[in-house]
Amino acid sequence: MKLNYKGWLISATPSPNHESDWDITLENYGNGRTHSFKVPNTITLKLAEDRAFTKVDEFERTEANIQRVDAQVKKYWGK
Fold this sequence. Notes:
alpha+beta, 4-stranded antiparallel beta sheet, about 40% helix, 1 helix, 4 strands
């Protein structure tokens, strides 16, 4: 499985250590970030996609908050 969501490449491969798990990899080439997590192969593909989309949304929200705080700090300190 390979998907693209909000600039993140989402791919799934069988886990080499656990036959019953899948490794979901999230890669953002814009900022060079990569994250991975495991899901059991007993869940549906739709549920695995939803989990990946939720993780990407969390990363995007966190990044937006960091950028907002950085802008506020720079504005306050004049840098």
